[in-house]
Amino acid sequence: MKKFIPYILGLLLLGALVALFITRKNDQARQLDQRVTLRRQDKLPYATYVAFNNLGHLFPAAKVNVTRKEPGFWDSVSAYSPKQAFIAITERFTADEAEMKQLISFAKAGNDVFISARYISSKADDLLGCGSNSFDLSYIQSVAREEEEVKFSLHTPPFHDTVQYQYPGRTFYSYFTRVDSATTQVLGHDEAGRPDFIRLRTGEGNFYVHLEPLAFSNFFLLHEQNIGYYEKALSVISPEVETIIWDEYYLYKKSEYDNNQKKKGWLSVLMNMKNAAGDHPFRAAFWLLAALLVLYVLMEMRRRQRYIPVIRKPKNDSLDFVKTIGRLYYGKGDHRNLCRKMAAYFLEHIRSKYKLATGVLNEDFVKLLHFKSGVGEQDIAEIITFIKHLEQAAGVSDKQLAAFHKQLESFYQKA
After folding, report:
1. For burial by CB atoms within 10 Å, which of 93, 121, 233, 361 has the most?
2. Angle formed by the axes of helices 281-300 and 5-30, to 10°?
3. For residue 278, how far is the Cα from the chain centroid?
4. Dihedral angle over CA of 122, 127, 133, 138, nearest 10
């Protein structure tokens, strides 16, 4: 029975995933994707794919550059050249004082800055001399009933007519609570008649602030004739513009508000996912799988541990090998050859341990070896004298071999 438990768990998990996929697919078929990304590459309802790809139709002679760098640090774009436009469509325009000064200097050089965001930072409000009602809201207001529609309007000047545009989607309900009429021109209002689109002159250029970025979303622009709102709103930018900077820096920039918000992980999202009946199928499948895994682990804990064989320590046969070789030479009676092998091993030992050259065996060598090893000079001199004698000796007797061996052993013990 135990061997079938993994297969049973696998089938249950597969069934839960299939049920979750079918339920999710049915929910998506009935519901509109409410995610607000405002990204140019997304084709979701609340993204800016249509707005970005229609820039070429509005400004056919302009080159469009996409950047995620802060103002003033754009690639291949000079912040001090005229006939340029900066467009940022984002949920939160969190510019600090240094970034605002860069954008204002950019506009003064004869360029246009177009900002569309539901939240404007306090530094931007102060430098532009206006005030907005987006006090760092953490929620999005949406239309309660399907028959209600969000409405926006553009007014003269500079537009030749006053037309209302509407769609059955979401809105941020952001508007300006205060504008300086001496320096600010109101270009648009929301349904309640509150200003949501303004223009400020600075130097040779213009600074436009728009508080409803969802008016540039795919859902809004593709609804009926709302593309006209997009064309008219961006017509305030000079038609002679040669370079358009489509900004994504503020789309991905994190503010203190974002850092303080509790991030929802993928597991919590899946655990709270509901089907059409209001149930939580993934949550039920997850806890069922967890219970089965615990049961499987408890049952497998009963198995016996495999026998671990005793591994014996490897035996060191080096000493036996040396003794065998020594007996071989001694048995053959070739004492001179055996002494030469012992002398060669001795000199190699001196080279490796004391780092002394053994090419010249003289009194200086004896003194250096005595200094490094601590063995008496007389003992070392006797060993060196016998090693030199081996080169010319015709043979070595048993007594000489025994005496040489005794001298070497004495050196190894004293060193």
Report:
1. 93
2. 170
3. 36
4. -30
The pair of three-digit structure tokens given for residue 307, joined into one six-digit string: 């026998």
Helix (H) or strand (E) holding 260, with range, is helix 256-260
pTM: 0.56
CA 84 – CA 27 distance, rounded (Å): 45
Determine contact, residues 86/245, Cβ cutoff 8 Å. Answer: yes
Residue 259 to residue 414: CA distance in whole angstroms = 72
How many CA atoms within 13 Å lie on the side-chain side of 380?
21
The CA-based dihedral angle spanning residues 282, 285, 286, 292, taken in that order and rounded to the nearest 10 degrees: 180
pLDDT grade, residue 135 (50/70/90)?
very low
- What DSSP character marks residue 226? T
Q: Which long-range contacts (CB under 8 A, 24 or more apart) does 135-139 make?
A: 136/257, 137/172, 138/257, 138/261
The full DSSP string for 264-275 is PPHHHHHHT---
DSSP 339-358: HHHHHHHHHHHHHHHH----
Short-list 220, 217, 219, 199, CA closest to 208: 199
- How is domain 32-261 classified at the CATH fold level? Rossmann fold (3.40.50)
